[in-house]
Structure formats: C-alpha cells, structure tokens
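User: Hi! I'm working on a homework problem where we have to compare a predicted structure to a textbook description. Could you give me the structure for the chain below?
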Amino acid sequence: MENEKATITHTRGRVVRWVYALLAAVYFVCVILQVFFAGMGIFVNPDDLQLHRTFANYFEFGSIIMFLLSFLGSIRGGLRWWTLGLFALTALQHMTIQTFTGFLPAFHTVDALLLFGISMHLTKRSWPWLMLRTERRVSEEKGRAL
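Assistant: Happy to help. Predicted structure tokens:
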C-alpha cells in the first residue's frame, strides 16, 4: 500500500515538473516573440506595436502558475523563486510604460533582457523534465535486457 502511494506521488511529481518545464519553455518563447513584435513595430510598421502591447497579457501569469506548481512538484531553490522574479519583472514592464516618466521608461528594454535571461535559465534547468525517458528508465531497461 505504501509503495503504491509512493508511486502515485512520484508520478504526480513527474507530471507537475513536466508541466512546469513546458510553461518555462513557452514563457521563454513568448519573451522572444515579444521582442520580435517590438522590432516589427519599430522597424516595419508602427501599427504592429499593438500586438506587442497586447501579447504580454496572454502569458504574464505563467510565472505565477510555475511558482504554484513548484510546491506540488517539490521544485526547490532557484527554480521556485526565480518565477516570482519573472512575475515582478513583468509587472515592472507595465510600470515602465504606464507609470514612469523621464528616463525611467528606457528601463523597459533592460527589463526585457532580464526577462529573457531568467526565462532562458529556467528553461535550461527544467528542460530534462520534458524528456519522456529518464536515466532511471534507461538503466532499468538495460538491466532487463541483460
């Protein structure tokens, strides 16, 4: 009975970590797309900036979901706390455009670099969780084959 509970808990943890890693990768891609949309608005057509303005609303809470998943998936350390950093930096993105005056809105671009770096770090660190085969499974299969 205890072994069955441990297996269920282990499986739940793997699924939660897989979802976390998927969200990290999606968030990273979304940051790249945001930069692309900004470039389109600046270098191609100013009307394209509207896409840049609205697109962030579709993924800005992904970091909070990742933070909550970190508790369910027993994800500790930086992989847990950097997600709150992402959320704070995303909120700062809105503030640099809507609230700040003078030279402070220029930090919008610096903040974007920080969002890129942190989301890339989270994606790289959680990427192995997206792989369907783990080292343990591979070694177990090799053991059975012998």
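For your comparison, note the following. Residues 139-146 have pLDDT under 50 and may be disordered. Residues 2-129 form one domain. Good luck with the assignment!
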